[in-house]
Amino acid sequence: MKQDLLIKYLCYALLAIICIIGAFFIVHDAQWIIGDDAIVMGYSGWGKWFPMSHTIIPESGRFFPTAYQMYNLYAPFFDGQMSAQALYLYHAIFFVIGSGICFYLIQDILKNREVIWRYGIALLAAVFYVGRTYPAYVNCFTTAWFGCSTTMVILLLAYLFYTKKNIWCGVIAFLILVWTTYSGESAFMRPLAWGACGLLLMWRKSTKWERAFHIGLVADAVIFLLVYFFFIFLKIQTAYDGSHGTEVTFIGNMISILVAQKFLWIAAIVLCVRIWDVLKNKVEITFYDLFLLTAGAMCVGGFILKLNWVTYYNGAALMCLPAVVYYLNHYLKPYWTALIMLVFAGWYGIKVPQTIKEINWQRQDSHQFMTVLAEQVEQGKIVYFYMPGETNKKIFDANWRYFIYDACQTFLRYYAGDENLNLTAVNECDKSPGVYITIDISENLAPEGNQPLESMGVKIAHNEMRKLDAWVVE
Question: What is the pTM for the complete model shown?
Answer without folding.
Answer: 0.91
